[in-house]
Amino acid sequence: MGTTMLTGWGRTAPTPASLVPAGTDEQLADLVRSAGPRGLVARGLGRAYGDAAQNAGGTVVDMTGRDRVLHFDREAGTVVVEAGLSLDRLMREAIPLGWFVPVTPGTRFVTVGGAIAADIHGKNHHVHGSFCRHVLEFDLLCADGEVHSVRPGDDLFWATAGGMGLTGVVLRATVQLLPIETSRMRVDTERATDLDDLMDRLTRTDDQYTYSVAWIDCLSTGRRLGRGVLTRGWHAKAAELSTKDRARPLAFDPRVRLAAPRRLPGGLLNRYTVAAFNEMWYRKAPRERRDEIQPLATFFHPLDGVADWNRVYGPRGFVQYQFVVPFGAEEVLRTSVEAFASAGHASFLAVLKRFGAGNDGMLSFPDAGWTLALDVPVSAGLSPLLDRLDELVAGAGGRLYLAKDSRARAELIARMYPRLGRFRAVRDKYDPTGVFTSDLARRLAL
Ligand SMILES: Cc1cc2nc3c(=O)[nH]c(=O)nc-3n(C[C@H](O)[C@H](O)[C@H](O)COP(=O)(O)OP(=O)(O)OC[C@H]3O[C@@H](n4cnc5c(N)ncnc54)[C@H](O)[C@@H]3O)c2cc1C
Prior knowledge:
single chain, 2 domains, alpha+beta, 5-stranded antiparallel beta sheet, Alpha-Beta Plaits, Uridine Diphospho-n-acetylenolpyruvylglucosamine Reductase, domain 3, globular, binds flavin-adenine dinucleotide
């Protein structure tokens, strides 16, 4: 069988693997039973930034062909879906019926299997928790080729939730959706003049909103350090829509309109152009605007309007650095923002959010505290900066997000994830010979 070079969304560190379509349950079970010494891992839509869905020299199973909705209970809002179904497709099915996915990341182009494996979070984490809190059951193909039906009380549940595909292949899942009256959002936007102001606003009033996030201008320094724009909101009620929109309150048909240039002219993405962009973005936001009605896709997935936008960073790719630190460790956040601002890395995608309480996921990322996520093009000087921040994050009892990571050191991950030992015990029980593995698993000695 031929090999395919695979990368994550950040397009760093390509590795060759035998990429095989998942086929039926039986074909997949055969693949698992006959996996070679380099093992096997499932892959969804490849939106993890790093090497989680790569397996150099081994097998990678492409799950995206298994994308059917198997059952939709329109009364209860529960769906049984194949794990390769994208949240984009699920939304197109569910929204017109008055149901929304319980948690959506910043892109609709992730699969349900990928959402479970990373136990993804959205802007509503402080209210609804992570994705797996809304998963009622899933079928997991384990290393012995048997399918296990897994529920929240089972050891396999919280090992698989956030377990980055290392406990088996999720075949199907039952997900509880959220009821909505419309496909629009009611949104409040406000500007914050610096990091203190931003954090103060989030702390004081986040509880009033179902969804909350803040964009940070990561290049401004001095008095403006950490200035940003908060966008927070709720699902709009039918009565809040304009007369025209009320005719089709649940319409949902977002398009991918633009294609990003394959590569921007040399050096266009530098600290000066990005600083100018950030300035424009900040000024463009209203100082304060209440109750604006926006389409769902504008609020949740603005980047999905541009196909392949990850290519603008050029051939060296980019890193997304995301960490969470507990409340009380605000200094780590401040130090990080200062470090990025003074190093001048050209990041225009930087977001800050407050997480609510965590869950039982042994390798789940979200936990109560502040999470900062930013895209940074790979460049000289980036590695030492991130290594230094990793230490600060670990020292404060925080952690990095495995779905975004492509570069951390193994010993730090063990400090950041205190339940790693429990995860390994469950994995060893169901996969004693280590059939399920990936570049990420080897790099971080998971
Ligand atoms: C623009 C953008 C915005 C994002 N925003 C957020 C965000 O707001 N919040 C958030 O939490 N994440 C976010 N992410 C990350 C993304 O949600 C996760 O990486 C998610 O896991 C990607 O799903 P995927 O289907 O593309 O999986 P892949 O990237 O293909 O794989 C990711 C992991 O899932 C495993 N996996 C995939 N399918 C299965 C399966 N069927 N069974 C078992 N394991 C499986 C893989 O082995 C791998 O470990 C964002 C990513 C992008 C590109």
